[in-house]
């Protein structure tokens, strides 16, 4: 048991923190797809089973490591259910619901950190691409060659909304009813996902 | 001469710095419109004529105080000349030209600072609203009641582009040809300026 070899007790807060630190490094350096639970466990000096025990799967570990306050796996079904042409509006609506809720403060902290810290920026990028954009683009069966650009464009609109509503606090955007922003930015996101962008 | 009273020599770097410090405070606290050269001069302990001598008008003082690397007064004519339906594309094109140029690094520094510092955020907001968005919305004769929201929406798309291309560096957005982003985001900006957003 490698956990014993390094002297870490499986149940201690130290062990949990060591796993999270190793996970942050692995996800930032190798990206979500290439990072493995096994390698993270080795780096943390624990057994992979312990990582699963604490965090479940790789998605959950990623979310814990990046301190992401929202769970796309729980939120995305509401975005993807329903007509294909409404995904953009539903994505903006759910996005605003999360950021307008109490967890939004954690989102602002994360965005601030990502802007000043290259490492957090990489984690945020990985999170957006693999946990949010990829499932949406998959669901819509978007041409794989176009996915990076289309996903990136969606990210520009969502990140810009977050910046103006919650960070820089442009009055008209910060004070707008969610429905107003959904009506304005929903079609933009929809066009970036499935419309003509050339 | 109040410059003499405070012991500051008109030609010294101290004087220039004192004016810029007073200007930053005035613009952040009162906003661009309410801040006056006279009040800034008083706060800096110099004669208003000296402020004009160093910096010219209020726009130039604002740009120097906020260290904005680009001059919208010089750039906007190229955006506004031409057909009304092309303003969105031309605004995105000029925006990317500025950020892709060597001065873009200063833009990134400014965005980083604005995200972590409320004071810089206010200055950036004032700059965007009064120096970029207002002239564009004026030129297009947009319904005054709709200007704050329309301007704010344009800001979400431009800020999001800057975030993804230059700060968080999403590959597909960071590596895209400017023309690709103009074709994708230009119509978005145009719709926010003059199209149906309800």
UniProtKB/TrEMBL annotation, chains A, B:
- PROSITE patterns from the entry? HTH_TETR_2
Instruction: List the stretches of this chain annotated as a DNA-binding region.
Output: 36-55
Give all residue intervals belonging to the HTH tetR-type domain. 13-73
User: Which keywords does the record carry?
Assistant: DNA-binding
* InterPro entries xrefs: Homeodomain-like_sf (IPR009057), HTH-type_TetR-like_transc_reg (IPR050109), HTH_TetR (IPR001647), Tet_transcr_reg_TetR-rel_C_sf (IPR036271), TetR_C_16 (IPR041678)
What would you give as a GO molecular function for this chain, any one? Answer: DNA-binding transcription factor activity
- UniProt cross-references to Pfam families, sorted A to Z: TetR_C_16, TetR_N
User: How is this protein named in the record?
Assistant: TetR family transcriptional regulator
Provenance organism: Micromonospora tulbaghiae
């Amino acid at each position: 048991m490698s956990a014993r070899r390094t002297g870490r007790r499986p149940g201690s807060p130290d062990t949990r923190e060591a796993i999270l630190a190793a996970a942050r490094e692995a996800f930032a350096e190798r990206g979500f797809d290439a990072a493995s639970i096994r390698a993270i466990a080795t780096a943390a000096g624990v057994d992979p089973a312990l990582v699963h025990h604490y965090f479940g799967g790789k998605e959950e570990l990623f979310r814990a490591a990046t301190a992401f306050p929202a769970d796309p796996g729980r939120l995305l079904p509401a975005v993807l259910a329903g007509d294909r042409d409404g995904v953009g509006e539903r994505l903006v609506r759910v996005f605003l619901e999360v950021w307008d809720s109490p967890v939004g403060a954690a989102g602002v902290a994360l965005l601030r950190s990502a802007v000043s810290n290259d490492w957090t920026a990489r984690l945020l990028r990985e999170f957006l691409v693999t946990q949010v954009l990829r499932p949406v683009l998959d669901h819509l069966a978007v041409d794989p060659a176009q996915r990076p650009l289309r996903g990136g464009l969606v990210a520009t609109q969502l990140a810009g909304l977050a910046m103006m509503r919650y960070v820089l606090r442009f009055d008209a955007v910060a004070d707008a009813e969610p429905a107003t922003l959904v009506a304005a930015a929903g079609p933009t996101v929809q066009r970036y996902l499935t419309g003509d962008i050339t």
